[in-house]
Amino acid sequence: QGWLVESGGGSVQPGGSLRLSCAASGRTTFSSSTMGWFRQAPGKEREFVAAAGRIFGTTEYGDSVKGRFTISRNYIENTLTLQMNSLKPEDTAVYYCAVRPLRALDYDLWGQGTQVTVSS
Q1: 69-74 sheet: strands from edge to edge
Q2: pLDDT number for residue 14
Q3: What are the DSSP E strand ranges found in 13-111?
Q4: Mean pLDDT per 10-residue section of the chain, whose length is 120 residues
Q5: 16 to each of 23, 88, 102, how far by Cα in Å?
Q6: Are 4 and 110 in contact (CB under 8 A)?
């Protein structure tokens, strides 16, 4: 099982910053899993944002956020953070935290999502 709880969403003007957090609980295997962020805007498909692998320092970013967003992970406390800078209106979406277990092809645990709105 397991649970993921996101926090930190909100509204910001273009060029601003937000920091999202995700707290994971209920599994003993989080440290060996990949944890990531996805987002979904109204009328659009879910989009990969960033991921942090089970090995410290292994990160991956979607093309649309490279250079602006930074993912970080606390392997002891099982938390995941997404620092979002230079936000654009097209970053507006519901952001989801997710977990992909070791050797799994797909993410199998999802949070409830947190809304990020970038607007002037």
Answers
A1: 3-7, 18-25, 79-84, 69-74
A2: 98
A3: 18-25, 34-40, 47-52, 59-61, 69-74, 79-84, 93-100, 109-110
A4: 94 98 91 95 96 94 98 95 98 98 94 97
A5: 24, 8, 35
A6: yes
